[in-house]
Write a structure and sequence with these properties.
Elements lengths: L12 H9 L3 E4 L11 E2 L7 E7 L13 E7 L4 E7 L16 E6 L5 E5 L16 E6 L4 E9 L24 E8 L33 E2 L2 E8 L7 E4 L5 E7 L15 E3 L7 E4 L14 E6 L11 E8 L2 E12 L22
Parallel strand pairs: 1-3, 2-4, 12-19, 13-19
Antiparallel strand pairs: 3-10, 4-9, 5-8, 5-10, 6-7, 6-9, 11-12, 12-14, 14-17, 15-18, 16-17, 18-19
Length: 357
């Protein structure tokens, strides 16, 4: 039905990632998984997992009921995760007693915030021939921790307030219930934290330098994937107004594999597609946006030139760092022009100390 992602991403690695799920541990849904707090824990094998579940009743002889399923898994920062629904939409037409369910997928971070959401795509992908089977492709995980996948049926969606809340309670009588198979791939296990033994050192001995751990950057199609924060530290999914004058702040977040302060600032573009020449300027000094002791690059963009439209659910940054391309995606909620709040034209508190020279 209404699509939640403007451009479906088809990466070459997606085929192999989907095949990896075939050797993952297949399990069945355990009911009672109707909230993030009670999500069914999945065991990751060979980077993936597979679960067979259902939203409400699976046959047409039983009335549709509201239902939502949640599944959780542990993953490492930088994992490039693919989530796919199979066999939600079924053949056989309206006389088939086995219901088809039009699924909506949501991916929530360790803090319960909504990171990604998808309903339909424009064309069938390798994971399912049915465009109404939801999928989330190449989701870059921003930190080590516990992530949660939510599955619900069309007519309902996950709220941008996070924590697994839904936008409404209505259930489509045609495609609001039915069985599905959920596959998960591309999950890297979180690092194992071991407590080192206590070793007594003589007085005045300088502490040993910690070992340098280099994490290879996640790459899709030769382009490094990075994390960005649109309107940094604002709660929930950031709201932007379509086709209106104004400015918006975006932070390019450094990580163990990406130094935002080395970005070629003249190469930075941002908007609905990621190719929009909307950059106004960047802070001359790095800012600790997410408090991970790495300096992040905070930039100001022209909102109108970013070309957002109602229906877009993500903003995209592109550019180069040390001659190599990168891109970052983050969710947005685009609001119809004319419903802009007064402070939308303000530069945001991140811009108060911007370099205006």
């Amino acid at each position: 039905m209404k699509r939640f992602v403007r451009n479906a991403v088809v990466a070459a690695g997606f085929v192999s990632a989907t095949l990896a799920s075939n050797v993952a541990l297949a399990v069945e849904e355990i009911e009672g998984n109707d909230s993030i707090g009670t999500a069914q824990q999945l065991t990751i094998v060979n980077g993936g997992a597979e679960v067979t579940g259902s939203i409400g009743a699976t046959t047409t002889s039983v009335a549709v009921t509201p239902d939502v399923d949640f599944y959780s898994f542990e993953a490492a920062e930088g994992s490039m995760v693919n989530i796919c629904i199979l066999n939600g939409m079924k053949d056989g037409g309206p006389l088939n007693p086995i219901r088809s369910v039009d699924t909506v997928l949501g991916l929530f971070g360790p803090d319960g915030s909504l990171l990604y959401q998808n309903d339909d795509v424009d064309f069938a992908e390798n994971c399912s021939p049915a465009t109404n089977d939801a999928r989330i492709v190449s989701a870059l995980l921003p930190a080590n921790g516990r992530y949660t996948v939510g599955v619900v049926s069309f007519g309902r969606a996950f709220s941008d307030m996070g924590q697994g809340t839904l936008t409404n309670t209505s259930v489509d009588p045609r495609v609001g219930n039915g069985s599905y198979t959920l596959t998960l791939s591309g999950v890297n296990p979180p690092p194992v934290v071991e407590t080192p033994p206590v070793v007594e050192t003589p007085p005045d001995t300088p502490p040993a330098e910690p070992p340098v751990v280099t994490t290879p950057p996640p790459v899709v199609g030769g382009v490094q994937q990075i994390n960005i924060d649109i309107r940094p530290r604002h709660p929930g999914v950031s709201k932007v107004w379509s086709n209106t004058d104004g400015k918006i702040v975006v932070a390019l977040l450094s990580s163990s594999s990406f130094n935002a302060m080395k970005v070629d600032r003249t190469s930075i573009t941002f908007g609905a597609e990621g190719n929009e020449a909307s950059l106004i300027r960047c802070h001359s000094e790095g800012i600790y946006v997410n408090r991970d002791r790495r300096k992040d690059l905070v930039c100001l963009f022209d909102l109108k030139k970013a070309s957002f439209d109602v229906g877009d659910l993500e903003g995209v940054v592109k550019g180069t760092v040390e001659g190599k391309p990168f891109e970052g995606h983050a969710p947005v909620k685009v609001v119809q022009h004319g419903k802009k709040r007064k402070h939308q034209h303000d530069f945001d508190r991140w811009d108060r100390h911007a370099d205006r020279r």
